[in-house]
Amino acid sequence: MIDKNAIRAAARNMADGPVTEGYKGNRAMVLQMLNEALATELVCINRYKRHYYMVTGLSNASIKAEFLEHATQEQQHADWLAERIVQLNGEPDFNPATLLERSHAEYDDSREVQAMVRANLIAERVAIESYRQMIELIGDSDPTTKQLLTQIMAVEEEHADDMRDLLA
Hints:
Elements: H1 4-12, H2 27-54, H3 61-87, H4 99-102, H5 113-138, H6 143-166
Helix pairs in contact: 2-3, 2-5, 3-6, 5-6
């Protein structure tokens, strides 16, 4: 049965935005995980963008295009994560000084195309496992965040598949 008292209480606490008293997640833990995921996505954007600009040659045009496409999708993920952090009354951490220590993925400054592809495949696998663990930790306590992380993880799996296909 629906708890009408909880519904009425939700209507009274407008300052909390979408976070109602019925929110079951550990908000501090979820916000920390989301900020770590945000840092990971930001590092991935920078890595893919560097690789995009460093790849040369007509024979590498499709790889270059793939790197740019992935950078754009990682930016979308970062935007979604930042929006969710704000929805949970948190603050997205874009501080470049601590980005690498908060990120689960590594930056890469390879110059050889296959090394770039390998670095991106490794980073995608790291992101997939990170999202899998976050989804497991959240469980059913925060369905919106769980759905968001699942959506992002599906794209990261596509990225890993793309990178694997590009390995010579």
